[in-house]
Design a protein that fits this description.
four-stranded parallel sheet; about 20% strand
Length: about 400
C-alpha cells in the first residue's frame, strides 16, 4: 500500500547527505554489493545485497552517530554524549565517540545480549544497565542527559542522523546505477528517510520500498493518520526495527518520498535469515533480513534491478540458533510429530525403521509413559525430524499413517 503526504521540503537535503559523506570518508566503509542468484531467479531480474552487516560495528548506525557527534560544538563535546540502545546504536555511538575523542555513556536494558554489551564497552563507552525494555532505558538516558548536561544522541530522530544514514543511498547509486527498486527495513525511520532524500533527489524514478515486521508496524497506521501514532506492545524477533512510534523528522520524509510500506511475518523473517546464511554466506540479523523477507514473500512485486539493504549483522548466537530452527520449520525442513504406539520391546526400533525408509533424519526422541491420557500399554513419542521440504514432510506423515501409527496433531 502506498502513502503520500503533502508537506514542505524535508528538513534534510541532498547537500546535507553529501556533506555527511565527506565527513565519513575514512570512517565508514563503502560496504560490498553482492548479487543473489536465488532472489534474482525469483524476481526475474537482478537482485543485489547492500551489505551494511559488514560495516564497522556490524551495522549502518556508525554513519549517523558519527555525523551527529562530529557536528557538536566544542562545549557540547566536552560535556560528553549519552545514548540508549539494546545493540546497534549503542555500538555506533561508542565507536564514533572514541574516534572523535568524546566521552560516551550508553544505557542498555538489563536483558541486552552479553556480546552486544561487551562490544559496546570494547568500543570505549561506559555501559549502564537500566530497565528491562528499551523505553525504560531511553527514559534513564534522557534523565542522565538532563542531570549531567551530556548530549543525548537519538537513534533516528535528528537531521544529522538521517543525513549520515543517507550516505548508504549515495553508495547504492554509485555501485548499482541501473537500480530500479531499493528495499530497506524501517524501525524509527532514520535509515529509510536518509536513503530516500539522497536517492529521490538524484533518481526520482527509483522506487523505494520500506519493510516493517508485522508485529511492530507503526508506519502504516501513522501514515494513514497523517501523524506519528504509537503501536501498542510491538513484538518481533527483529529487535533492530522494533520501534513503537515513528520519529517526527523521518516520518515527514518517509511520507513524502518513500513509495510503499510492506510488512512481513516472523516466519518470513526467519526464512530470510536462513537464506542469507545458506545461500549468500552472510550473517544477518532479523531486522537486516527484512528486505529479503519482503522479496521472498512476493517476488513479482519488485521491479529489477533490486537492491535489498542488509542493514546489520549483530545477532546473539543463542537467538540465531532459535531463529534458524524457526526458519527451517517455516521452510518445511524441520518436522515435529507426536504419536502413540504400543509399549513393547522393539516398538521404537520399528518406528525408526519406517522413518529411515523415507530418509527422515531423527534429531531428538522423547518418551512419555506417565500421562493420564495414555492407556496402560501405550507410550507417547515425540520426534523432531530434519526433512527436505514441505513435500518431504507430507511424505513422512503419510508413511507413518500407512504403517498404522496414530499421529497426534
Amino acid at each position: 500500500m502506498s502513502y503520500r503526504t503533502a508537506h514542505p521540503l524535508p528538513p534534510v537535503t541532498l547537500d546535507d547527505v553529501r556533506g555527511a559523506q565527506k565527513m565519513l570518508s575514512g570512517v565508514a566503509r563503502m560496504t560490498a554489493m553482492e548479487g543473489s542468484r536465488h532472489l534474482s531467479g525469483l524476481v526475474g531480474a537482478p537482485v543485489h545485497f547492500k551489505c551494511e552487516n559488514l560495516q564497522r560495528t556490524g551495522s549502518f548506525k556508525l554513519r549517523g552517530a558519527y555525523v551527529r557527534i562530529a557536528g557538536l560544538l566544542p562545549e557540547e563535546r566536552a560535556a560528553g554524549v549519552v545514548a540508549a540502545s539494546a545493540g546497534n546504536h549503542a555500538q555506533g555511538v561508542a565507536l564514533a565517540s572514541s574516534l572523535l575523542g568524546v566521552r560516551s555513556t550508553v544505557f542498555m536494558p538489563s536483558g541486552a545480549p552479553l556480546p552486544k554489551v561487551a562490544a559496546t564497552m570494547h568500543y570505549g563507552a561506559e555501559v549502564r544497565t537500566h530497565g528491562t525494555v528499551v523505553d525504560e532505558t531511553l527514559a534513564a538516558a534522557q534523565e542522565y542527559a538532563a542531570e549531567t548536561g551530556a548530549v543525548f544522541i537519538h537513534p533516528f530522530d535528528h537531521p544529522d542522523i538521517i543525513a549520515g544514514q543517507g550516505t548508504v543511498g549515495l553508495e547504492i547509486l554509485e555501485q548499482c546505477p541501473e537500480v530500479r527498486t531499493i528495499v530497506v527495513g524501517i524501525g524509527g525511520g532514520g535509515l529509510a528517510a536518509g536513503i530516500a532524500v539522497a536517492v529521490k533527489a538524484l533518481r526520482p524514478d527509483v522506487r523505494i520500498v520500506g519493510v516493517q515486521a508485522a508485529g511492530a508496524a507503526a508506519y502504516p497506521p501513522s501514515l494513514a493518520a497523517g501523524r506519528p501514532v504509537s503501536f501498542e506492545n510491538p513484538a518481533t524477533m527483529a529487535d533492530g526495527i522494533k520501534v513503537g512510534r515513528p520519529g517526527d523528522v523521518p516520518f515527514r520524509i518517509i511520507g513524502d518520498l518513500v513509495d510503499e510500506i510492506r510488512t512481513v511475518s516472523e516466519d518470513a523473517l526467519s526464512s530470510a535469515l536462513l537464506l542469507c546464511l545458506e545461500r549468500a554466506k552472510l550473517v544477518v540479523e532479523p531486522a537486516g533480513a527484512s528486505p529479503v523477507a519482503a522479496i521472498m514473500s512476493e517476488p513479482d512485486a519488485f521491479e529489477g534491478p533490486v537492491v535489498a539493504l542488509l542493514s546489520g549483522g549483530n545477532v546473539d548466537p543463542l537467538l540465531m540458533q532459535r531463529i534458524l530452527w524457526h526458519g527451517m520449520a517455516a521452510n518445511g525442513r524441520y518436522l515435529a510429530v507426536t504419536l502413540r504406539l504400543t509399549d513393547r520391546p522393539g516398538a521404537l526400533a520399528t518406528l525408526l525403521g519406517v522413518l529411515s525408509v523415507v530418509d527422515a533424519n531423527v534429531l531428538d526422541v522423547s518418551h512419555v509413559r506417565t500421562d493420564p491420557r495414555l492407556g496402560l500399554t501405550e507410550v507417547e513419542v515425540e520426534l523432531h525430524l530434519e526433512t527436505k521440504g514441505p513435500e518431504h514432510c507430507a511424505e513422512v506423515n503419510s508413511a507413518l499413517r500407512r504403517a498404522g501409527y496414530t499421529v497426534i496433531d
